[in-house]
Each structure stands twice: as C-alpha cells, then as structure tokens.
Specification:
The chain is an alpha+beta fold. It has helices at residues 3-14, 80-90, 112-120, 129-135, 152-157, and strands at 20-23, 30-31, 43-44, 52-56, 59-68, 72-74, 94-101, 106-111, 126-128, 137-139, 141-144, 147-150.
C-alpha cells in the first residue's frame, strides 16, 4: 500500500469512536459499461472534492489528506476540483488539508483559506515544513513500530 493511503488509514483508525468520520469513496477515472447504470457506455467519473468528512461535538471538517517523504508540498498538489470543493466547504464548515511529513514524523492542519493566502503571496511553487509549522496547527502522534496513531481527539478539541 502506498504511504499516502497508509497515512489515510492511520488517520481514520485514530479517530475516536464518538466522532463521525466518513471517507469519500474514490472512483476510478473511467467507469466501464458493466458498472455504469443501465449498461450505459463508459464515461469519465470526476474525483472527490476532498478525502474525509469529520464531525465531532458540533464541529465539521472537510479534509484533504496529503503525505510526503520530503519537507515541502507543491501548491499544485491540490487538483482544481479539490481546491474549489474545499473553498466552497470553507464558507460553512472547517475545511483544509492535513499535511503529513513522513520523514519528520509530523502532521499539520492548514485551513484552505491560509493555503490560498500563502500561495497567492508565494515567490516559489511550494510550501515548506517551516512555513507549515508557522501557519498550521499540529496534530501530534506516536509511532507504534511502523504505523502511526494520531491524537485526533486533541486536534479536534482545539476547535471547541
């Protein structure tokens, strides 16, 4: 399994049972005739606006999870539909990215609004871990041999 999917699984497994978390289903880029409704011809299926919907104690988050082995994320890591979906969601709920820096063992939340402001004022094509540390909110975690457990409860509690 690729590291990004492992991060998603570790995140989902770390959500406390009293919170509601839903992973939006990934669709393949193309749907074949056998899976299309009424045997229709194959068609392109758009991707989701974000990865997760998370609800806890009256707070709702629309989250896109990203993971890197490096120390930066390119701003174009978000597809146009993800950017638009998160911006639309941010008008009503908390919406942003969970940025996982695997080598540093750190995960940070950054609102889509902050991501957009930083990108608009950027002189480069990426955001590095130092900037994320300055403008994001850290989700602490601990590693158990090879897999992570994230303190999602403490992270969610910050927003109360």
């Amino acid at each position: 399994m690729n590291p990004g999917k492992l991060f998603e699984q570790d995140f989902q497994d770390s959500v406390p049972p009293e919170a509601y978390v839903y992973r939006l289903k990934d669709c393949p880029g193309w749907v074949s005739a056998c899976t299309c409704p009424s045997g229709a011809s194959p068609r392109f299926v758009p991707s989701n606006d974000y990865d997760y919907a998370l609800f806890w104690r009256g707070n709702f988050w629309a989250l896109e999870l990203k993971s890197t082995k490096g120390v930066s994320f390119r701003y174009d890591v978000l597809r146009d539909n993800q950017r638009a979906g998160l911006l639309k969601a941010s008008k009503i709920v908390n919406a942003g990215l969970l940025l996982n820096f695997r080598t540093a063992g750190e995960t940070w939340y950054m609102s889509i609004g902050m991501w957009e402001r930083l990108e608009a004022n950027a002189t480069k094509k990426s955001i590095n871990i130092k900037e994320v540390r300055q403008y994001g909110y850290q989700m602490h975690g601990k590693v158990k041999v090879t897999r992570w457990t994230w303190d999602v409860r403490a992270w969610m509690g910050y927003w109360e």
